From TrEMBL:
It comes from the Bacteria. This is Glutamine--fructose-6-phosphate aminotransferase [isomerizing]. The chain holds residues 250 to 621 of 621 of the full protein. It comes from Demequina muriae. Residues 43-184, 217-362 form the SIS domain. It catalyses: D-fructose 6-phosphate + L-glutamine = D-glucosamine 6-phosphate + L-glutamate. Homodimer. Keywords: Aminotransferase, Cytoplasm, Glutamine amidotransferase, Repeat, Transferase. The active site is at K367 (for fru-6p isomerization activity). It is found in: Cytoplasm. The gene is glmS. Catalyzes the first step in hexosamine metabolism, converting fructose-6P into glucosamine-6P using glutamine as a nitrogen source. Its EC number is 2.6.1.16.
């Protein structure tokens, strides 16, 4: 088993370190000679893809957070409205789905029954389904009209890490592809996006190479009872994922919030010394977003919180408001979740390990939930 873990103490730690490769492999060879995205399986008539007027992402757990990231990117690049549904909520809300709907089912295992049932419901309504799936030949891969495989390799740890980054990466590819196909972007803009994506694996590696400070902080926090996570725009799903990882692995109460919601409720939870992670967006992002999130940091700090801030390298203003600062490389804003989530994965892993828990097999959880 030690060999399978590649020298790491846990599968999860190995898989965290596999992430540069998982993203690079998911990107490799994806663009054909005509500059079009190559789907791995199935074929969707280009006419259908040109005529869709809505995208609905269906997924569960961590995959649903990849879907939330996908929404920001795909909507921005394609101008197609994107919804994200938890797969088990999808059919019960009687969603508006028809032949002009593209449903994107995201699943590591391809066997999550809730997601399979959402796929079937969508197909019954006439929708086209693309699977973003990690497991070759799985049920969702077989039943979807087309598949874009994430090439993360087998994920053994129950808590998803490298599959999550690969899902986000595949979603970007899908968004870029649709933008190209539908003429939303000029060829040079498409090429620029693809080359920015190609630069991400090296940046992910850099986050891993500079992660010691978050490990040290995590080990000192084994006695915490509650940790809050705030993020805005693409930082919001990152906050949700950071909180989920901590719940799953360390059995600590953790909540992720949209930073803009802070004043509408969550700020009531802030008290002296309570740890609050804040994912601060790049100063180069959408206008005034950076300033607004930094003012959230100040608001919680003024109430005694201990602020743990994730910011992009060079953001010295963020450091001034942080009790602890963790830097990640700068990147196009929509792509930053591939970087900013990594310190949170490592935090949950280290804190749970410090508590002596089995991070690869947390209590009560299954890698793949094959019942509804
Ligand atoms: C389970 C796992 C989660 C995973 C979710 C969706 O709940 O414990 O880690 O995110 O299922 O799994 P899928 O295989 O569909 O991505």
């Amino acid at each position: 088993a030690a060999a399978e873990k590649g020298g790491f103490a846990t599968f999860m730690d190995k898989e965290i370190h596999d992430q540069p490769t998982a993203v690079a492999d998911t990107l490799r060879g994806r663009v054909d000679e005509n500059g079009r995205l190559r789907l791995d399986e199935g074929l969707i008539d280009e006419y259908v893809l040109k005529s869709i007027d809505k995208i609905i992402v269906v997924a569960c757990g961590t995959a649903s957070y990849a879907g939330l990231v996908a929404r920001y990117a795909i909507e921005h690049w394609t101008r197609i409205p994107v919804e994200v549904d938890l797969a088990h909520e999808f059919r019960y809300r009687d969603p508006v789905v028809n032949i002009k709907t593209l449903v994107v089912a995201i699943s590591q295992s391809g066997e999550t029954m809730d997601t399979i049932m959402a796929v079937r419901h969508a197909q019954q309504q006439g929708a086209t389904v693309i699977g973003i799936v990690n497991t070759q030949g799985s049920t969702i891969a077989r039943e979807a009209d087309a598949v874009l495989y994430t090439r993360a390799g087998p994920e053994i740890a129950v808590a998803s890490t490298k599959a999550f980054l690969a899902q986000i990466t595949a979603s970007y590819l899908l968004g870029i592809f649709l933008a190209e196909l539908r003429g939303n972007k000029f060829p040079d803009e498409i090429a620029a996006l693809l080359s920015e994506l190609d630069a991400m694996p090296a940046k992910i590696q850099r986050v891993l190479d500079t992660a010691e400070p978050i490990r040290v902080v995590a080990r000192s926090m084994a006695d915490e009872h509650t940790v809050l996570f705030l993020g805005r725009h693409v930082g919001f799903p990152v906050a949700l994922e950071g909180a989920l990882k901590l719940k799953e692995l360390a059995y600590i109460h953790a909540e992720g919030f949209a930073a803009g919601e802070l004043k509408h409720g969550p700020i009531a939870l802030v008290e002296q010394d309570k740890p609050v992670f804040v994912i601060v967006p790049s100063p180069h992002g959408p206008e005034s977003l950076h300033a607004k999130v930094l003012s959230n940091v100040q608001e919680v700090r003024a109430r005694g919180a201990r602020t743990l801030v994730i910011a992009v390298e060079g953001d010295e203003e963020a450091a001034r408001h942080a009790d602890e600062i963790f830097y990640v490389p700068d990147a196009p804003v929509l792509m930053t979740p591939l970087l900013s989530v990594i310190p949170l994965q490592i935090f949950a892993h280290e804190l749970a390990s410090a508590k002596g828990f089995d991070v690869d097999q947390p209590r009560n959880l299954a890698k793949s939930v094959t019942v509804e």
